[in-house]
Design a protein that fits this description.
alpha/beta; cell membrane; 380 residues; single chain; transmembrane helix; 31% helix; 12 helices; 16% strand; 17 strands; membrane; binds nicotinamide-adenine-dinucleotide; 8-stranded mixed beta sheet
Length: 380
């Protein structure tokens, strides 16, 4: 069978779903790979690099749709792309099915099987296919780099002949995958890092990375843990206590990185305008929740603004794309592992086993049916 990758058409999207290294691994699974010309250009991968890895370079997306049995993408397909799918073809990529019902319906009508990488169950066995985590890891790292580029001072403290420089103080709100990556990056740059999360079990992870976990003095403990390792909405009392803690931090910290999310909801508003007002001029906020409305009320999605009191607020939503070489490498590895699960005999033939928790969880259309939402996974 043929595995094909097209160029991402979303403006500003620099990632690609296949690297030459992954193509070599797919060849071992029995697949011949094809790519659209220029598909990897924005991620620094030339057509020649693909050719050298044995990938056939085709002149346009239509040629890839015509040639390939499996099409891989990064972003959800656009209508013009979905309409090129044919019966029995498989599409793999981010899809966000809950937000893209019309697209899912169209894929069903085309008779295509769609595997949504954002629906891969977050169970141990599926970690190698967990593209949400690999992209969140990059976003957390890049958030710190972006903060540093907009912060006019060092992260690390220094004693120099020209004077003593205090270390920057970084607060990370939300210590999931992106938050932990931000904590690791900021501590390794020498900043003093504090972090807060509603899930108390992350305290140990935060501390093991050299950061301070901000405990909340609250009678029902820090616990807003929901199901599946995710957070649940906080009670009004807990939220007030949390905001009080942040108000105390606001004048002290130089950089705030917010990553707090609750599944299937708008991002909780945690960094209020009065906290921004209380921050020092030159401080930076990077709001990684901008896509879902932002944790900071003043965040403008996809923009960088500077407030009247000199605080920079970054609401970019394309952090993984800003590191397209790295994110393409990790994403294509996630997709390649999905292909390995779909190819049990390593014979270049997809076997779509709906009894497999991971394949079932990620499959949103199959054999002319919508198969979303999936039943809960049976194993951890
Ligand atoms: P996420 O992006 O949904 O949320 C980010 C963080 O925000 C979470 O840590 C959450 O607790 C926190 N948060 C929510 N409301 C908050 C508030 N009011 N104040 C402060 N923080 C708040 O989460 P994620 O990064 O996708 O993953 C969350 C967790 O899921 C992981 O830490 C892990 O436990 C689990 N997970 C498991 C696997 C696996 O086993 N394969 C893979 C990835 C994630």
């Amino acid at each position: 069978m043929k595995f094909g990758v097209i160029r991402e058409v979303e403006p500003g999207e620099a990632r690609v779903a296949l690297t030459p290294a992954s193509a070599a691994q797919l060849a071992k699974l029995g697949y011949d790979c094809v790519v659209e010309t220029g598909a990897g250009a924005a991620a620094g991968i030339t057509d020649d690099a693909y050719s050298e890895a044995g990938v056939e370079v085709l002149p346009d997306a239509a040629a890839v749709f015509a040639a390939a049995d499996v099409i891989a993408k990064v972003r959800p397909p656009q209508e013009g792309e979905i309409d090129q799918l044919r019966e029995g073809q498989t599409l793999i990529g981010f899809f966000w099915p809950a937000a893209n019902e019309a697209l899912m319906e169209r894929a069903k009508e085309r008779g295509a099987t769609v595997i949504a990488m954002d629906m891969v169950p977050r169970i141990s066995r599926a970690q190698k296919m967990d593209a949400l985590s690999s992209m969140a890891n990059i976003a957390g790292y890049r958030a710190v780099i972006e903060a540093g580029a907009n912060f006019g001072r060092f992260f690390t403290g220094q004693v120099t002949a020209a004077g003593k420089v205090p270390p920057a103080k970084v607060l990370v709100v939300g210590a999931g995958v992106a938050g932990l990556a931000a904590i690791g990056t900021a501590t390794s740059l020498g900043a003093i890092v504090r972090a807060f999360d509603v899930r108390p079990e992350v305290a140990e992870q935060i501390e093991s990375m050299g950061a301070e976990f901000l405990f909340l003095d609250f009678e029902d403990s820090q616990d807003s843990a929901g199901s599946g390792g995710y957070a649940a909405p906080s009670s009004p009392e807990f939220r007030e206590a949390q905001l009080k803690l942040f108000r105390e931090q606001a004048p002290e910290v130089d950089i705030v990185i917010t990553t707090a999310l609750i599944p299937n909801r708008e991002a909780p508003e945690l960094w209020t305008p009065d906290m921004v007002e209380a921050m020092k001029p030159g401080s930076v906020i990077v709001d990684l929740a901008a896509e879902r409305g932002g944790n900071c009320k003043l965040t403008v999605k996809d923009e960088k603004i500077v407030t009247d009191n000199g605080v920079t607020i970054i609401g970019y939503t394309d952090f993984p794309s800003r590191m397209a070489a790295q994110s393409s490498a990790l994403y294509s590895t996630n997709v390649r592992h999905m292909m390995a699960d779909l190819t049990p005999e390593k014979d270049g033939k997809v076997v779509h086993n709906m009894e497999d928790d991971v394949i079932r969880g990620a499959t949103i259309t199959h054999q002319g049916e919508i198969t979303f939402p999936p039943p809960p996974p049976k194993v951890k």
